[in-house]
Design goal:
Blueprint lengths: L8 E4 L9 H10 L4 E7 L11 H10 L3 E7 L4 H10 L3 E5 L6 H10 L3 E6 L11 H4 L2 E5 L14 H11 L5 E5 L4 H10 L3 E4 L1 H5 L3 H11 L4
Parallel strand pairs: 1-8, 2-3, 3-4, 4-5, 5-6, 6-7, 7-8
The chain binds D-xylitol-5-phosphate and zinc ion (ZN).
Length: 222
């Protein structure tokens, strides 16, 4: 990595937490020193599963002051931006594959004053021809197929991360999501990733605070 980039962030994914105790889990994540909560929203169409809606995100918002990073795995993302903004989202990432107008979707999020992320599923090549970076604050490189926690990191995505990092302005956050543990986080970090989403790996650790600290140390963020 040749250019200075924004600071690193570690975001546990809500997908791996106990949905019966979302507020409690949000407070636990905050206490453990995470930089925010990655909230996976699935619509049963773009991906088969269904997860949370704006009401549940509003409950998270009441429980914590942490940065809420909303990952929309839904078709027609424009229909859901305002409800999630009202619910308390700080950043909304939508999938490149899920909308016919990427620019319009990004602009709608910006209009609401929130940070914009654009996500790419593993099979989607990164488009070099669009002025994507002027539309977004973050590019999310999915390192597993979207829709499910607990999958193995796809090593082929390392090349895509390198490409995105090479093309992007230094202030663009490069997020990786799927199969992230200390080993894969270090691999992604060495190519320039700056935002690390981790569900299964972090949650399996007996001490979340220690696990987050360990990951920070591994990526050289302390
Ligand atoms: C998958 C989600 C991820 C998921 C990551 O579609 O976008 O955020 O929670 O889970 P792990 O870390 O278990 O791969
Ligand atoms: Zn996600």
């Amino acid at each position: 990595m040749s250019r200075a980039r924004a600071s690193f962030e570690i975001l546990p994914s809500i997908l791996s937490f106990d949905f019966g105790f979302l507020a409690k889990e949000a407070r636990r994540i905050e206490k453990a020193g995470a930089d925010g909560i990655h909230v996976d929203i699935m619509d049963g169409h773009f991906v088969p599963d269904l997860t949370l809606g704006p009401r549940a995100v509003a409950a998270l918002r009441r429980a914590t002051a942490l940065f809420l990073d909303i990952h929309l795995m839904v078709y027609n993302p424009c229909d859901y931006i305002e409800p999630f903004v009202i619910a308390g989202a700080d950043q909304i990432t939508f999938h490149f594959e899920a909308t016919e107008d990427v620019k319009e979707t990004a602009q709608l999020i910006r209009t609401h004053g929130k940070k914009v992320g654009i996500a790419f599923s593993p099979d989607t090549p990164f488009p070099r021809t669009l002025p994507l970076f002027s539309w977004c604050d973050q590019v999310l490189v999915m390192t597993v197929a979207p829709g499910l926690g607990g999958q193995h990191f796809l090593p082929d995505m390392l090349d895509k991360i390198a490409t995105v990092v090479q093309l992007s302005p230094p202030e663009t956050r490069i997020q990786v999501d799927g199969g992230i543990n200390c080993t894969t986080a270090v691999q992604c970090r060495s190519l320039g990733a700056t935002s690390f989403v981790s569900g299964t790996y972090l949650v399996q650790q007996p001490d979340l605070e220690k696990a987050i600290l360990h990951m920070r140390e591994a990526i050289g963020a302390v």
